[in-house]
Design a protein that fits this description.
mainly alpha, globular, hydrolase, Endonuclease-reverse transcriptase, endonuclease, nuclease
Length: about 110
Amino acid sequence: MWFLRRMKRIPWTAKKTNNTVLSETKTKRALINKIRKRQATFFGHIMRRERQEHLVTTGMFMGRRGRGRLREKTTDGLASWLGVGSTVEMIKMARKHDVQRGMIANAMRHGTG
């Protein structure tokens, strides 16, 4: 519940019950779109800065890969949500702020998976 309250920006001082907070939540898809939008704006911010966070986010650091199945990357999920063909293409588009804002607005409008 604390995560849902935080996503909806309900302060802890507000006297709202859990049932009220749950009933105010429109749909699961709207909440997921809100999360994805925030992830995409943060991703664009990191890609434009090109510091150490950029290297960690894109996976361009040295070392050995762990055993087992690869984890699903946040970048892959964002690329499919934004409707971009590949992660590399998404990184190129994220460096242009106006293009990235257009991609996010389009994804929010169409509510892609």
